[in-house]
Amino acid sequence: EDKVVQSPLSLVVHEGDTVTLNCSYEVTNFRSLLWYKQEKKAPTFLFMLTSSGIEKKSGRLSSILDKKELFSILNITATQTGDSAIYLCAVDAGENYGGSQGNLIFGKGTKLSVKP
Amino acid sequence: SQTIHQWPATLVQPVGSPLSLECTVEGTSNPNLYWYRQAAGRGLQLLFYSVGIGQISSEVPQNLSASRPQDRQFILSSKKLLLSDSGFYLCAWSGEQGWTEAFFGQGTRLTVV
Predict the structure, then answer these.
(1) How far is Cα A60 from Cα A91, in angstroms, rounded to an integer?
(2) Which residues are paired to B5 by β-bridges?
(3) Tell me: the pLDDT tens digits for B73-87?
(4) CB–CB of A99 and B51 under 8 A?
(5) Do A101 and B44 count as a contact with CB atoms less than 8 A apart?
(6) Is any Cβ of chain A less than 8 angstroms from the Cβ of B41?
(7) pLDDT digits (tens, 9 = 90+) for A66-104
């Protein structure tokens, strides 16, 4: 069975700390791994990773994929209270789910709380 | 630009009552459409997906059904709600660029009492 596992499930840090969120996966037909940030309602897209070892960066956030060890990490440096959210990792399982776009298998998320 | 509308935002329904959640997409054609449910502590779970009008695939056996009467309309329904149907329901669509242009609706918080 395809699955995505995120750790830790929750994390409390103080402003200025650096955090690392983990995502491991087991899927039959891997196409890509995506990170989303969910604050109050709908998830918003952060990164899509398809190749190992290539870091994606956006401001204080960065992410990298290891396709050999089947995991990805999301780093947030100099955290701010506005980073408080649930961070979702999802894997595009491709053709298993039919259609040309495949389907996303989501982890349970990591709830990050940044205290002032 | 593409937009996705989902309603209602919140809903409180008694056990045994029917359900209808609606999702519409604007600014694109022939999108793939999805219904997800987010139960507490369980992440986002795919319920249904559709690649075209009248084409519905179900991922999880459940008390719910979905329909796609028009290209950009996706409806989630139930004839009789159960307490276990409570949760946060998200509609999503993806286009030709795949999930980098995937968009989610604002969600519906359903509480079955």
Answers:
(1) 23
(2) B24
(3) 999 999 999 999 999
(4) yes
(5) no
(6) yes
(7) 999 999 999 999 999 999 999 999 998 765 444 444 567
